[in-house]
């Protein structure tokens, strides 16, 4: 938690649940990433947190943006971003959304299938397109399965088609999975991309861009490698496979940029047990999986907690949200421990919750409204 | 899908994604339940769908309401419900919410722990309280784990405390899990409740109410028992355990009341494969897990689909939502098959989606707004 956030919470004690996010920390993270990967252009993954003050600050810093929808593109434009600095990175787009984006000047689009490429050829003529390929997500705490991307052979075929259909076959993208804790995942993926570059060169197509995606981790409960380690691994692999002929490099950080800039402040609603002699207490908060903490599904992302009783004796807990839904349980199997003194009415802070929280919040499950947002 | 919904979709083709819900069907379901369990008072579980036209119709029919929050209580009051017909059924409540409910005239509250009972004693003096006990959820497609309820011994102790603290020890509640497909679960639970009644009678406390909870299933892909089968099983067990001295009986149907009254209308955004020879197509819709279909988590609730090509040759599919999140995949392992002719732009209907959809929708994940709602 930054000192600015700590002071804000102390001075204003905003109603819970809420997110307090330090926009200066976003700037720090942007600069750290630029230092670690000076040759890469940064496309902030807007979906991580589309808060207007974040988009505004990043625009001022010269960042580009990776948008998942026409609605996110509009948010970027409203924040002052120029259309040439926005990539429409979702491989699944309605025709109406492609048309709107193209009309607004967007000229870079992702795809991973022939039907999508056909839509782009028809409604975004001449645009730069990049194909997303499937890669291993080993080491990611929020892996991305096979929903996005296609096999390499198909990617090669589609890039040939792209040119034939009047599009600009720009490059290849991949995503190693979010909260990726090993640098090796990038190295394997870069090797695959390089082989597509080589194959397509033989077909007379010179790709010019590698989109390295996101995935760069934030520290939650466990240590993660520093961003410099990812930068070194990526540059090592790029040099190994492309030599002096380095293509343009794009990165799409979301979590890395905003995760540790934010803190969710919540209230303990109840601390109870299920039987007299039960050693495990249930701690119910006024925010849960449907209030924004969606990434606790399967206990994937393990947030760290701060309480007013830190440093006193702790005991095992199950941590849950406030709704009448049992799936609204955050941590039951991850060996969380919280102070024995914790009780209803206490405020607790969830550290590094600036990413993938606000927009996930259910509009009204059990009647609860989404958490408030404070950008400071 | 009711004929009214079919006509509405045909005549108005509302923008997707949206829910179209036939309020007359809600009335039919209310009457079916009353016929199956004439001795039970119906407390509609508002969380299933708090649409104002639903609450209004049920108020007119004489229904009572099970509210999960102060916000849901307000919705019921605004729809014309009287406070004496509203139960505050969440066992996890902020003090401020208890105070607001009590001030509004609410006099029936659930609890399952001593700290919660203490809050009620302090802020809802004299109120009727009922204790929720843990029961088996075997047979439920959306089971409720141990988040709510306490062990029987604790329930007995707490009811004694309730009287000592000036509250009215009213009864016992349980929940056999949502989309419960076996009647036996209710029979086992009723036996447990009856033993608590007996024990407490010896302590001089005469409980007066059994809250049978909800769980009554809706037909999705697979057949489920009729509501009459649940009515028969429950009345058989009640008579067996309570004889002629039947206590008041409450039921809290949510899904049963509104599930088959609603249809989600969606658009196919993309149909693709991951490789040329891949037999499984990915079908991406403009609604997914974060757009309201939260109960597809773990492929728990298996909705049935209607497409414009029904009756033509089908093939295996994975069905996913429109966001850049891989967990936004609905069905990958449940052997769904859809027509080979299905393509982007087609409208599809998800049948019996009137419950647990609208309020779950994320406020803005990936920039997508919650589905529209049409009550007809």
UniProtKB/TrEMBL annotation, chains A, B:
Its cofactor is pyridoxal 5'-phosphate. It catalyses: L-ornithine + H(+) = putrescine + CO2. InterPro entries: Ala_racemase/Decarboxylase_C, De-COase2_CS, De-COase2_N, De-COase2_pyr-phos_BS, Orn/DAP/Arg_de-COase, Orn_de-COase, PLP-binding_barrel. PROSITE patterns: ODR_DC_2_1, ODR_DC_2_2. Residues 24-258 form the Orn/DAP/Arg decarboxylase 2 N-terminal domain. The modification N6-(pyridoxal phosphate)lysine is found at residue 47. One of its GO terms (biological process) is putrescine biosynthetic process from arginine, via ornithine. Belongs to the Orn/Lys/Arg decarboxylase class-II family. This is ornithine decarboxylase. The lineage of its organism: Bacteria, Pseudomonadati, Pseudomonadota, Alphaproteobacteria, Acetobacterales.
């Amino acid at each position: 938690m930054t000192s600015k956030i700590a002071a804000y919470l102390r001075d204003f004690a905003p109603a819970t649940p809420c997110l307090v996010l330090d926009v200066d920390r976003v700037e720090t993270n942007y600069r750290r990433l630029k230092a670690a990967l000076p040759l890469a252009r940064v496309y902030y993954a807007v979906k991580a947190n589309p808060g207007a003050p974040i988009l505004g600050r990043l625009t001022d810093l010269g960042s580009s943006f990776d948008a998942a929808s026409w609605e996110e593109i509009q948010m970027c434009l409203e924040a002052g971003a120029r259309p040439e600095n926005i990539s429409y990175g979702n491989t699944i787009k309605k025709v109406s959304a492609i048309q709107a984006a193209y009309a607004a000047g967007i000229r870079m689009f992702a795809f991973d299938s022939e039907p999508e490429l056909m839509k782009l050829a028809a409604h975004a003529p001449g645009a730069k397109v990049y194909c997303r390929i499937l890669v291993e997500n080993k080491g990611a705490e929020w892996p991305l399965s096979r929903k996005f991307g296609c096999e390499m052979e198909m990617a090669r075929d589609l890039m040939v088609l792209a040119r034939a259909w009047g599009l600009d076959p720009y490059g290849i993208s991949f995503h190693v999975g979010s909260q990726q804790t090993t640098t090796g995942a990038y190295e394997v993926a870069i090797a695959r991309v390089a082989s597509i570059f080589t194959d397509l060169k033989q077909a007379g197509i010179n790709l010019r861009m590698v989109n390295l995606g996101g995935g760069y981790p934030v520290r939650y409960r466990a240590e993660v490698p520093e961003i410099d380690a990812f930068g070194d691994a990526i540059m090592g692999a790029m040099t190994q496979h492309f030599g002096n002929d380095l293509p343009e490099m794009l990165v799409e950080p979301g979590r890395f940029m905003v995760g540790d800039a934010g803190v969710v402040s919540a209230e303990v609603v109840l601390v109870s047990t299920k039987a007299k002699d039960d050693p495990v207490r249930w701690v119910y908060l006024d925010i849960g999986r449907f209030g924004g903490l969606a990434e606790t599904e399967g206990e994937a992302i393990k947030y760290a907690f701060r309480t007013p009783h830190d440093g006193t004796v702790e005991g095992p807990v199950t941590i849950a949200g406030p709704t009448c839904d049992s799936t609204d349980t955050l941590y039951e199997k991850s060996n969380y421990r919280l102070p024995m003194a914790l009780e209803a009415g206490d405020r607790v802070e969830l550290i590094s919750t600036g990413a993938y929280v606000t927009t996930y919040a259910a509009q009204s499950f059990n009647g609860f409204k989404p958490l408030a947002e404070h950008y400071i």
